[in-house]
Write a structure and sequence with these properties.
259 residues, alpha/beta, 2-enoyl-CoA Hydratase, Chain A, domain 1, six-stranded mixed sheet, four-stranded mixed sheet, Enoyl-CoA_hyd/isom_CS, Enoyl-CoA_hydra/iso, ClpP/crotonase-like_dom_sf
């Protein structure tokens, strides 16, 4: 693996997003490696629980690597949007549905698509320095990889509207208060806390845990698959196309790698 590190401890797998210089942003290679990991993990009879975290203290995940994704989407058609519906971001925001429990250990920024990746996990444990952000509104669009669907399911309509409308930072403490994260601990305690939580799940009936997860995801509003498909189509085709392309071009030019 080039962009993720996978370790095993008993029946627990820990996958670490390992691009700290890029705040663990998801590029094409990481996306494919995560898809492979989730599929392998879900079929492995010797693993029961996964923990997802990011390398370094600064970020869990800063979302999609825009330097790579922007050029791809500037010329995409609506048919490309439809084809993307079953692909998602990072393997589990849409497309792959993991039946086993997944815990996010959020150690820094969970931003944009990184926020969506954290929301796609079943339980979130955050360090007290973690921060969450839906900053897409500042570039003229909104989440398209599960952020809206899962925010509404987790914290309700009004709080979701506030976070998405303003594009403001959400601290770990606020995230805990509104139900986005289950626990907030010091950075030094984060992984031990996540491991201890995972260990408790290993002791439970795995058949029951899988059924709980399946049932919860099916009963929240309409089915998760229907809701995610709708959000993907609306999110990836939202806003003034000319304005969005201009904003993305400006970003790409500003951050172009100089040879």
């Amino acid at each position: 693996m080039q962009t993720i590190v996978v370790t095993r401890s008993g029946r627990i797998a820990t996958v670490t997003l390992n691009r700290p210089a890029a705040r663990n942003a998801i590029n094409g290679v990481m996306h494919q490696e995560l898809k492979t990991f989730w599929t392998t993990f879900d079929r492995d009879p010797e693993l029961d629980v996964a923990i997802l975290t990011g390398a370094g203290p600064d970020a869990f995940c800063a979302g999609a690597d825009l330097k790579e994704y922007i050029p791809q989407w500037l010329s995409r058609t609506f048919q490309d949007v439809r084809d993307n519906v079953d692909d998602g971001l990072g393997g589990i925001t849409r497309g792959i549905r993991v039946k086993k429990p997944v815990i996010a250990a959020v150690n820094g920024w969970a931003l944009a698509g990184g926020f969506e990746l954290a929301l796609a996990c079943d339980v979130r444990i955050a360090s007290d320095t973690a921060r969450f952000g839906s900053f897409e509104i500042h570039r003229g669009f909104h989440h398209g990889d599960g952020g809206i669907v899962r925010l509404v399911a987790s914290i309700g309509v009004s709080r979701t509207m506030d976070i998405l409308y303003t594009g403001r930072e959400v601290s770990a403490q606020e995230a805990h208060a509104i139900g986005l994260v289950a626990q907030v601990v010091s950075p030094g305690e984060l992984m031990a806390t996540a491991q201890a939580y995972a260990a408790k799940l290993v002791e439970k009936s795995q058949v029951a845990l899988h059924s709980i997860k399946e049932t919860v995801l099916e009963v929240v509003g309409k089915s998760m698959g229907e809701a995610l498909k709708l959000e993907a189509i609306l999110g990836y085709s939202s806003g003034d196309v000319a304005h969005i392309r201009e904003q993305l071009r400006e970003f790409a030019e500003k951050n172009a790698v100089k040879v």
